[in-house]
Amino acid sequence: AALQKDQVARHAVKLHRPKAATHSRSWAANNCKLLVGLLHRKSVVAKKLGAAVTAVEQDVNLSEAEKQFQVHTLEVFQKELNESEHLVLQAVQSLQRALQGDYRDVVNIKESSRQRLEALREAAIKEEQEYVELVAAEKHQQEALKIALAQNKSLSILDEILEDVRKAADRLEEEIEEHAFDNNKQMKGVNVEAVLRVEDEEKGGKMKNKSRKVEVEDDLGLSMLIDSQNNQYVLTKPRDSTMPRADHHFIKDLVSVVMLSLPCGWICTLVGLPPMFGYIICGVLLGPSGLNSIKSIVQVETLGELGVFFTLFVVGLEFSPERLRKVWKISVQGSCYLSLLMVGAGLLWGQFLHIRHTQTVFISTCLSLSSTPLVSRFLAGGSRLDREGDLDYSSVLLGMLVMQDVQLGLFIAVMPTLIQAQSGDLDSFLFGSLRVLKLLAQVLVSLAVVLLLCLVLRSFLIGPFYKKLHTESKGNKEILVLGMAAFVFFMLTITELLDVSMELGCFVAGALLSSQGHMVTTEVMGVIEPIRDFLAIIFFASIGLHVFPTFVLYELTILVVLTLTLVIMKFLMAVLVLSTILPPSSRQIRWVVSAGLAQVSEFSFVLSSRARRAGIISREVYLLVLSVTTLSLLLAPLLWRVTTHRCVPRTERKTVT
């Protein structure tokens, strides 16, 4: 055997010997001898493991379960040896590919690196599984030792009770544990990636003097994970569901937002600005461009979305079905015409600036949307202009905004077609065009289903449902608040399942309740408005998280020009459309409605981020859309105040809250 190892070593040295010193030859020979020796020892140990398995299977003193466990433990060790040998051979093959490749060919080097990365990911999954099995084997051995010691001594009544509790706890853990890692690691689209686990500084300081084992046992899984793309993750569902946990990052973020929103909103009120400016400034100060103290940005934005839902619900409460019947045709026509005009203007600018059609269509559609929560805050308070035969500007404005929310849901569904068009595949694009027509038909059917459901609910369910809530909530408003929130979420879920828009469901829920009369609307408003106001603060603060003052200052001139051009263009387009579709007796409201539509919706943040990930727009265009949207939202209150001051009589004027 020694002679054979020497021959293998000399052969390896002869194949790969460089024209260098004797030291490198001796190093290669020694390492080749070591590798051959390790492989030989592995073969010997594998035979011993096979013999041990045979001996365990023939041992009559062991139970069947104990035999299976010991055989499984030996197989885990055998698997560990085989995987180690496989990794060595894989490393040799990787070195061979690297030597055969062209060092000037970056693509070849990248492919080699990708193959090594995939091999390491597979090895990590296998090693993780083997580690878990070894931990289970260790636990089994400890349990066997405890049982052996317990048989040699008499147990007290307390020890017997604790032993029964221990067995029940083991069964409970087995029942509630989902094995999510094992169940998902082989699924299609699942990738294994390297992540960094960052402990809290306070926890890290306290745990310095403890052993690693104690640190793992005491950890509640609330540390942060960071992947190679700098995305940060927090715990969503723990392995052990019996222990209560709280996301302290999220709690601290909410405390920071609420505490800073008060002085910011107060200062804006003192200087005559809407308090929502203060909330946005609060988000800027706490966000990535400021103190960067918000850790759970996604969670804060998600909570802010609830503010949008309840804002639209309150808008629906003020929007009776009678008002809806007056303006539905104008709302549908106006929103569609305005979107088509924006897309047409975008294509003209794109042709002039040599921009791809997919980019111009996306950007134009994105910028054609207006902010419903912002305008609803403008319309809060004040009296309504609702003379007989006339249309009040709030009804027309809110109707068009709701239809734009419907268009938003449709546009999100059409985005895959834009991605296919971006790739330039003609067949895919034609197929995508047919898919768009199919989606339009689905939206019309879904809207018809929503309308039919509203008629059924209004005729048979809303009245008895509210009377029951009103009866049960006397002296206790919790039932009424819970019932209203449940109804909002029910309609939200229905419209989401129909692929229309969650925002439309919230608006429809409010409109259905408003059909029950003024007393019902007043009572529901009294319990829902405080919730709406608090969540709206979180929503406007989350907008500030996406404002980057440094980028705005760097490109201030071009951003101001783009924003003013966009606002003026949207204002004039809206005036043109409303002059065409409004009846002659109500055309005086077109200026106010156009002022409310002249900004860009905050949902452009979501759409542009998706488009950037899909490759429809570049990073530079994404930042421009983000900044223009923010500046238009900041400019909107000024335009609204000037327009309402000049075009609406003082007795009929809305106030900007």
Automatic annotation (TrEMBL):
Q: Which organism is it from?
A: Nothobranchius korthausae
Q: Does the keyword Transport apply?
A: yes
> What is the protein's membrane topology class?
Multi-pass membrane protein
Q: Where in the cell is it found?
A: Membrane
Task: Output this protein's name.
Answer: Transmembrane and coiled-coil domains 3
One GO cellular component term of this record is: membrane
Give the primary localization class: membrane
Per the record, the coiled-coil ranges are: 110-182
- Pfam families membership: Na_H_Exchanger
List residues of the Cation/H+ exchanger transmembrane domain. 259-640
What terms describe the molecular function in GO for this protein?
potassium:proton antiporter activity
| Keyword Disulfide bond annotated | no
Q: Which UniProt keywords apply?
A: Antiport, Coiled coil, Ion transport, Membrane, Signal, Transmembrane, Transmembrane helix, Transport
Q: Which residues cross the membrane?
A: 254-277, 297-317, 337-355, 361-380, 392-419, 439-458, 479-498, 534-554, 561-582, 621-640
